[in-house]
Amino acid sequence: MKRILMALVCAAMMMPMNAKTLVAYFSATGTTKAAAERLAKQHDARLWEIEPAEKYTAADLDWRNPNSRSSLEMNDPEERPMIKQCTDVTPYDTVYVGFPIWWGICPRIINSWLDNNLLQLEGKMMIPFATSGSSGIGEAEAYLKKTYPTLNWQKGLLLNKRQ
Ligand SMILES: Cc1cc2nc3c(=O)[nH]c(=O)nc-3n(C[C@H](O)[C@H](O)[C@H](O)COP(=O)(O)O)c2cc1C
Predict the structure, then answer these.
(1) Ligand 1 binding pocket includes 29 (Cβ within 6 Å)
(2) Calpha distance 12→5 (Å, rounded)
(3) How confident is the model at residue 9 (pLDDT cuts 50, 70, 90)?
């Protein structure tokens, strides 16, 4: 019994430091999901999908239609789409937040997630990452810093290529 306990304590002590890393992401069509999975593997991190209460359909994602759900949401800075499930962010000290670039910035569901977890995220290292058609992550980074100035934002990662 004593030996088993010792083995468990040793195993816990040998756990990598980055076991306290969370990779939370939203992905509408799977590209950011694949990037998040790679990132979580690289950092031995916990993976968490930020899922909308109501999934986005192809029609919802039509950016050419000014009345599509995504267009209506992106046109309203106060829009906060409902999330399916809460996240417990307390065990982590580094949090990667991933999303597809929509209209140059993050989809409003990322605001929903950040708003829901704001106090618990303060003091943690926050690293945005994104995938896009062609845009960079700079505008999204600036937007997040401006909208959530109490969070400790680090340089963002654009993960369009497999890396
Ligand atoms: C509503 C909407 C708006 C988008 N806006 C941009 C944009 O401003 N710049 C860009 O490069 N790509 C834009 N895209 C393309 C996505 O960022 C890109 O396809 C992304 O990799 C999709 O990730 P996902 O599969 O995880 O949803 C947009 C896509 C959608 C659906």
Answers:
(1) yes
(2) 11
(3) very low
Structure tokens at 31: 């590209």
Counted domains in the chain: 1
Give percent of the chain with pLDDT exceeding 90: 87
Phi, psi angles (nearest 5°) of residue 10: -65, -45
- For the segment 72-83, the average pLDDT, to the nearest whole number, is 98
Contact, 144 vs 127, CB < 8 A? no
| H/E run at residue 33 | helix 31-43
Could you give the maximum distance between any two Cα atoms of the chain, in Å? Answer: 66
67 lies in which domain range?
Answer: 17-158
Predicted pLDDT of residue 50: 98
Taking the centre of ligand 1 as the mean of its atom positions, its distance from the CA of residue 85, in whole angstroms, is: 23
Q: Under a CB-based contact definition with an 8 Å cutoff, are residues 95 and 127 in contact? A: yes
pTM of the model: 0.90
Query: Does residue 31 belong to any structural domain of this protein?
Result: yes
The residue whose two tokens read 């690293």 is 127
Q: How far is the CA of 15 from the centre of ligand 1 (A)?
A: 36
Strand partners, 83: 52
Q: Residue 8 falls within a domain, yes or no?
A: no
